[in-house]
Amino acid sequence: MRKQTLFLILFAFFTAQLFSSCEVINPSEEIPCYLRIDSFLFVDTVNGTPIVINRNTQKITDAWVFIDGKLVGIYDYPSVFPLLITEGTHRVRVYAGVLKNGNANDREIFPFFTSYNQDVNFEKGKTDTILPRYSYDKTALKYPVEWGDDKAEGFEGAGTIFKIAAGSAADTIFKTSVDSLVLDGNYSGEIILNKTDSTLIMETSKSYTLPTNRRPVYIEISYRTQTTLRVGLYGINIVSGLVTNVPFINLNPSNGEWRKVYLNVASEVSSFTNTKFKVYIKADHLKTQTQSQILLDNFQLIYQ
């Protein structure tokens, strides 16, 4: 009888421990809150009266999401994602992320855009939707003193900041107003290469003063091209006049689509002293084609 009683006691004890262990291994799941970000708006605050512009003019690829000052994730557009937070109002801050130098494996917050802030009253199991709104941060955005009118080169004015350089077979930068070729505004820049005009060497007419203390320095280019574009810098020593060629990146043919790149040249610029810089674009005609069309728009050289 004692053995049977002892067995029952031990059985009850180990059964209780077993169920207790199961609860530790499989604890009850917390119900998350959800946040949805389908798209964004971009407001042009630089070129005249602020207006909402075509989102394709900026290549914002990611939403860097912070909740109450803490990074919770980096998400593509569109995305719906869970948040293990308490119910109630939380401050949501979203930064615009881009591909550094067009590299899908190197993503970063673009330092010249404003962040988006919104207080959201979260509930467990509920999905809240926000629409981030970005613009250029005028407090962070600086142009070289030689730039002039403090706006992107959109080929809308009478002239252009570019010129054809020595050694170029192509000798003209056109402005096209054909709707199917223009990115935004009324015009885009156009260069046509062919069997005769088989090479392009173009550069900024001015040389620019840029910070060389590793502050953010970026070249922005919107492009649509049938041939590879080679983008780089000329470093011009202001004492000796020595010119140093700094090749930076090759931009591949864009398959009939407009593309946008944000080129971080801070490291290259900071390797010089007593130097001003020109930006150049070079290209060769593809012999397999009758002509190689190059379209450019919204070029900027900016720093913080």
Secondary-structure element sequence? HEEEEEEEEEEEEEEEEEEEHEE
Low-confidence stretches: 1-24
Q: How many domain regions? A: 2
Helical percentage: under 10%
List keywords for this structure.
21 strands; Jelly Rolls; five-stranded antiparallel beta sheet; mainly beta; 9% helix; disordered N terminus; Immunoglobulin-like; 304 residues
Task: Write a brief caption for the model.
By secondary structure, this protein is mostly beta strands. The protein is built from two helices and 21 strands.
How would you portray this structure in words?
By secondary structure, the protein is mainly β. The protein folds into 2 domains: 33-135, Immunoglobulin-like, CATH 2.60.40; 162-303, Sandwich (Jelly Rolls). It has helices at residues 2-25, 266-269, and strands at residues 33-37, 41-44, 51-53, 62-67, 70-76, 79-83, 88-99, 107-109, 116-122, 127-130, 133-135, 162-164, 174-176, 188-193, 199-204, 217-225, 229-237, 243-251, 259-264, 275-284, 292-303. The strands form 5 sheets. Strands 4, 5, 7, 8 and 9 form a 5-stranded antiparallel beta sheet that branches. β4 (62-67) and β5 (70-76) form a beta hairpin. The radius of gyration is 28 Å and the shape is elongated. The N and C termini lie far apart (86 Å). Residues 1-24 have low confidence and may be disordered.
